[in-house]
């Protein structure tokens, strides 16, 4: 008897996309970590020209534009994030954390959105992904609360 499990062909067809989105999550974490290490080492904020910061800004914008966020809590969080980034009153390292949290949450959302509707409520398929998404949404919302002074509005999906 084989130890292999049945994988829905619809998920198999999206495997390359899932892998790319997971890779993007790890890259985002790497950029944010590099900035954190630099701030801890120097005791100063990063420069606006910091390549990791610029990459986080780009990744956030691209991911926001690709994610299906219309008429959702995510759309509101993106609008709040955009406002904070435009105001330019927060430390850039904090804005980098905000972009990273938003990008990672949006990438998890994109993965969930690619799971066929009839499989989304199947814990075997999506439990871990939903947990990671909810954790990242809490992080994103908490950073927004810290930077904007507005209360944390996210509750688990």
Could you write a compact summary of the structure shown?
The protein has 157 residues and is mainly α.
Task: Tell me what the structure shows.
- By secondary structure, this protein is mainly alpha-helical.
- The chain is 72% helix and 0% strand.
- It is built from 6 helices and no strands.
- Helix 3 runs parallel beside helix 5 and helix 5 runs antiparallel to helix 6.
**Cα gyration radius (Å):** 17 Å
Mean pLDDT: 86
Domain count: 1
Count the DSSP helices: 6
How would you summarize the topology of this molecule?
Layout: H1 9-13, H2 15-42, H3 51-66, H4 73-87, H5 92-114, H6 123-148
Give descriptors for this structure:
single chain; 157 residues; mainly alpha; globular
């Amino acid at each position: 008897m084989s130890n292999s499990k049945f994988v829905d062909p619809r998920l198999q067809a999206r495997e390359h996309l899932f892998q790319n989105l997971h890779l993007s999550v790890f890259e985002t974490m790497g950029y944010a970590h590099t900035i954190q290490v630099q701030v801890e080492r120097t005791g100063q904020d990063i420069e606006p020209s910091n390549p990791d910061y610029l990459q986080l800004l780009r990744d956030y914008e691209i991911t926001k534009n690709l994610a299906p966020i219309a008429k959702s809590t995510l759309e509101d969080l993106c609008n709040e994030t955009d406002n904070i980034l435009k105001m330019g009153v927060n430390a850039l390292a904090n804005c980098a954390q905000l972009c990273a949290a938003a990008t990672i949450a949006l990438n998890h959302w994109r993965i969930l959105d690619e799971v066929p509707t009839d499989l989304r409520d199947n814990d075997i398929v999506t439990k871990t992904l939903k947990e990671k998404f909810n954790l990242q949404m809490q992080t994103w919302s908490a950073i927004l609360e810290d930077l904007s002074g507005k209360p944390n509005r996210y509750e688990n999906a």
